[in-house]
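Figure 6 in text form: structure in, sequence out.
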């Protein structure tokens, strides 16, 4: 079943489901009848759909839809004040999310589907101060996230079996700066993230952003090796895409931004594209089909004309797709 948000005949934003065997979209029961539900963060878990939506009082709340009985159920986070849940993340029989507590501070919460209870996870900044948590990522039996306290960001691991929280990321050079939000992914049992560190360069220190990976089995964190980009040059890696046991991503080296291919088996990286002296190539929209990888880029610097490219994986050749 496909769940999606669309506008109904009354111009209200509602939640719909589409089952190919039925052939006709069906509106899911509303969370309010006098306006748009504005459903967000659609997250499947154990044949149910969890999402946030607007209730009759105009507040954003957490709901669960059970397709077997076609009903919506409100999940109460606390008994007073605004909840405003975000960042829904499923892990095991649990749903993790950020929400305001009764004091108005944003905290990390856990909903246990079996006991149908909501609990607040160990806090970083006390009850009345928000924890500044981002990048909730599920991997094996743990939830990983970034939290900032007293001006320092750390990468944390919360184990759902032991209910223990630990700091898992280390800074190889001792000059810790922080993490780049929105660039953390789990792949093949490892956690990939982008960290900014201060490194020596020409007698000074410069801030550089690199990709790191954490292996839960060994408990070690290592940087992704890229011999094509010097250690004192910021890569600003983004647009992660995992395909055929490799990591593809966009990275910068001085005036060039290209697509790179990382092999976790031997910790090596090669350059896929070659947009020389082009700071505006900005490769993105990476997607794989069969033995080919497609992405868009601006081949002529500052032209603003984005084109479609194809990378043939077996031959390691990139070519521009003919324009229509």
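Output sequence:
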């Amino acid at each position: 079943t496909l769940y999606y948000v669309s506008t109904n005949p009354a111009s209200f934003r509602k939640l719909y489901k589409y089952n190919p065997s039925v052939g006709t979209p069906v509106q899911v029961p509303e969370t309010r009848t006098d306006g748009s539900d504005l459903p967000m963060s659609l997250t499947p878990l154990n044949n149910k759909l969890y999402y946030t939506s607007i209730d009759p009082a105009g507040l954003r709340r957490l709901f669960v839809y059970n397709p077997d009985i076609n009903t919506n159920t409100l999940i109460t986070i606390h008994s007073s004040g605004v909840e405003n849940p975000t960042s829904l993340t499923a892990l095991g029989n649990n749903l993790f999310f950020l929400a305001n507590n009764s004091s108005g501070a944003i905290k990390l919460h856990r909903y246990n589907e079996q006991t149908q209870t909501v609990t607040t996870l160990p806090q970083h900044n006390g009850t009345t101060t928000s924890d500044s948590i981002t990048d909730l990522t599920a991997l094996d039996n743990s939830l990983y996230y970034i939290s900032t306290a007293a001006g320092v960001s750390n990468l944390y691991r919360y184990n759902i079996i032991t209910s223990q929280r630990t700091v898992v990321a280390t800074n190889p050079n001792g000059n810790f700066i922080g993490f780049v939000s929105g660039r953390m992914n789990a792949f093949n049992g490892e956690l990939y993230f982008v960290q900014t560190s201060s490194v020596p360069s020409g007698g000074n220190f410069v801030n550089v952003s690199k990709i790191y990976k954490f292996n839960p089995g060994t408990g070690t964190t290592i940087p992704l090796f890229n011999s094509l980009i010097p250690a004192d040059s910021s890569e600003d890696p983004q647009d992660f895409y995992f395909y055929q046991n490799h990591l593809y991503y966009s990275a910068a080296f001085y005036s060039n931004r290209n697509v790179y291919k990382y092999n976790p088996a031997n910790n090596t990286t090669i350059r896929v594209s070659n947009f020389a002296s082009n700071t505006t190539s900005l490769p993105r929209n990476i997607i794989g089909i069969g033995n080919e990888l497609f992405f868009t880029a601006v081949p002529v610097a500052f032209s603003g004309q984005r084109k479609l490219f194809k990378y043939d994986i077996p031959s390691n050749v990139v070519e521009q797709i003919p324009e229509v």
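Caption detail: The longest strand covers residues 190-201.
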